Amino acid sequence: MILSILKNYKLHASHILLLTMLILFPFFGNAQNDTEIFFMNISTTADSLEVSNFRNISNNPGYDSQPSFFDNDKLLYAGTKNGQTDIYQFSLDLRTKKRINLPTSGGEYSPQKIPNKNSIAAVRLDTTGLQRLYAYEYNFPMYGASTLLLPETEVAYFAFHDEKKIVASVLGGNQLNLVIANLETKEVTPYIENSGRSIHNVPNSNSVSYTLVNEDKNHEIYVLNIDEDGESYFVCQLPIGIQDHCWLSDTKLLLGSGSKLHVYDLFEKPQEWKEVADLSNFNISEITRITVSPDGKKLALVAEINQ
To answer: Strand order in 131-137's β-sheet?
Structure first.
């Protein structure tokens, strides 16, 4: 559905940032804000998003971020304890937490379930500075053991197109560049420069969304059609200062800004970001990463607690 909406919005060179930008993400620098992972049940109406069962599931000093749903009950995220960042899984029903990866000297980030497999992929940053994408076993007796997926590629952020292909932002000097990588053949195809960190599968489609930075240094969302023509289609611009988005459905985008949630509906006129929920009553602010469960009934986000 989404591609039929976007066919008239081709990717043009004018949308690409020509100036080098400084990329700020968890792999650069040691100073990070204390962030927490918050979970809530959601239900949507035409004009609002109702929130219930709101709770802090990381509840941990330090950096907790980059949530993604393993399934409708289990949430993955990168969590820091005693200065070490690992992959954690939180069971929403049992309210229990466990570490996925075996201990390493480096740190693990950006965990995601590998489609059609009972394993998890994550980015590891070693103490030597080596940064690579690994797969982590989810079943015993090999639980937590890791396998290198792309030996020569410095993956920073990624999304699975399927179990064989990923769309990823990789390190390229002091910027990120978007590539399409085949995990079986190890072939990595450059796609476009100056990409962002927010990459997501579009529900009920074979497409992946990603962000680029425009001439005004604002992030724009595009949808990449890998299987059909390999072209990208412009969707919309994120609000100023916002880097993250996710899909609430195949025609609705969702983001957090400050303490508020906003939706962009591809079918609604005028097409603009509309506030649908204010979470300030929960004493949070500075929402960044955000993700919706496969069934569309649960939401996890990263935010700071107001002091």
So the answer is: 107-113, 119-125, 131-137, 146-148
Return the SS3 of 15: helix
Q: Give CA–CA dist 164/150, Å, rounded.
A: 12
What does the block give as tokens for 126?
Answer: 């070693």
Q: Is the pLDDT of residue 283 over 50?
A: yes
Distance CA 173, CA 23 (A): 10
Q: What sign does the CA torsion over 201, 66, 301, 293 have?
A: positive
Residue 111: asked if its preceding bond is cis (omega within 30°), the reply is: no
What DSSP line would sit under 113-143, residue for residue?
EPTTSSEEEEEEE-TTS-EEEEEEE-STTST
Question: What fold is seen in the domain 2-305?
Answer: Neuraminidase (2.120.10)
The pTM score is 0.90
- CA 252 to chain CA mean position, Å: 16
pLDDT score of 69? 98
Instruction: Encode pLDDT of 144-186 as tens digits.
Output: 999 999 999 999 999 999 999 999 999 998 899 999 999 999 9
18 pLDDT exceeds 90?
no
